[in-house]
Amino acid sequence: MNTTQIQCLWVEAKIKFTTLLICLVYIPPPVVSHTVELFYENLVQHNIADYDKNLLIIGDFNMWRFSTTREGTNDVNGLKEEILEDACSLFNLESHNTIQNSFGRILDLVLYRHVTNPNVKRSVMVEVGKGEPLVTEVPRGTKLLLQEKQNQH
Q: Which domain of life does this protein belong to (predicted)?
């Protein structure tokens, strides 16, 4: 799925002893309820409810208030966050990213569903750790100067 409202790339990967369906997501701001509904419809279209393998959805959802846990949130989720929370509940997805940006927001989500197979003794674990960012966040209103770097041999 690739529209101006949402971009999703689906890849099924066989990693040693398991199969993993991976969805890479980018939802550009501003995110509205309709956009999250489109993402939900994309999950339904890919028959996620009946998919019997491990599922990993990662990406930039630009939904800083989203939380699948209510501890300490004072129920701050709005309609778009509730739609995503309902999708996570329906498809048994757990949120694994708790790393905040410099504004104290979690914009990138790591949603995972582990399917236990009694015939397989090993399993895939999802662990999100804080590392060095690939891109530094720039405050609004900051002028950027881009320079072309010459490749010198």
A: Eukaryota
